Amino acid sequence: MSKVLVAMSGGVDSSVAAQLLLEQGHECIGATMMLARNSTCCRLEDAIDAKSVCIKLGIPHLTFDLTREFDQEVIRRFVEGYAAGATPNPCIQCNRWLKFGLFWQRAQALGCEYIATGHYARAQRDEQGIMQLYTAADTLKDQSYVLYPSVPEVLEHLLLPLGDIASKDEVRAIAQRCGFDNAHKHDSQDICFVPDGDYAAFLERQDGFDSSEGDIVDMNGKVLGRHKGIGHYTIGQRKGLNVSLGKRMYVVDIDPVSNTVVMGDTSALMSQDFDAIQALWPSGVAQDVIHADAVVSYHGYRHPATITRTGQESFHVHTDEPIRAIAPGQSAVIYDGDRVVCGGIIIKGNHVRA
Q1: Is 54 a catalytic residue?
Q2: Which of 18, 179, 241, 317 has its CA 20 to 30 A from that of 276?
Q3: Catalytic residue at 192?
Q4: Is 8 labelled as part of a ligand binding site?
Q5: Which one of the listed residues 42, 94, 112, 342 is annotated catalytic?
Q6: Which residue is catalytic, options 42, 91, 112, 192?
Q7: Domains delineated in the chain
Q8: pTM over 0.85
Q9: What secondary structure letter does DSSP report for 73?
Q10: Would you report the helix, strand and coil content of the chain in percent, each value rounded to 5?
């Protein structure tokens, strides 16, 4: 069989992925990426957990210190996104630049034909023989949304052993049967490099991030109050605004140029049209127009839509019905049934009045 470099975070999913690959006859090497200091994953303790599993499996274990690259490609983009008034998803950037970039390069240098992760998704050939990215059998755990950056040259060499497993309980049962100490280890939550979940405090500690106060205004520009810094806000937010208007009002826009937070009612959050940039097509096949489902947040609802390719790395989405609180910086991932068609970073949409 093939030589595989398995990305092992120290968690149960990647541990079971390695076990399943060995059962299939592959030659495996486990590798842990050391990414962010003070994170909830990829810490020294996680590397120790991963090494313990590798010893039990009888395979080598390596560690890659990618803290500098993680800071540059993931944290920097996260900070820049918030500074631009967006709400970025760092997990997608981590997958694009580190797992499907640097990790794959390390695998090739080690003579590996494939990389593998413990993500819940499937990489399979369609009837025409084209490698495609599909949703996982376990729809509750499906992670295909964050895997759309697996471009063709990577997808051809990506193994996802957990894609056909029915449930997380089954994964834990395999780990327990194998005697893994991490069989009941909790899944990581939130953004790994902001373990306390306080994004605003994290942003305020970053060099060059403008955390100064500014005006909260309505859609006509009338000043309603003061905000604590744009890093505290995201589209659709209602709590923590410290503005009392006698009716429900939400953040509908964030303008970093004027350092203002714009508030409006629910109708101002509704949109049917938006564009996505930095678009990627996992299969490499980019259709000009397709009617499919758009998902605009991780584990979000599917919205039937017409997707029109507008460039080599961009597409436009027109949904059949208005969507509430589309946040620039999040990813729009397009699904045709259980197949991932493409994905890209959302830029501002056009609001419609209900």
Answers
A1: no
A2: 241
A3: yes
A4: yes
A5: 94
A6: 192
A7: 1-176 (3.40.50.620), 209-263 (2.30.30.280), 266-347 (2.40.30.10)
A8: yes
A9: I
A10: 25, 30, 40
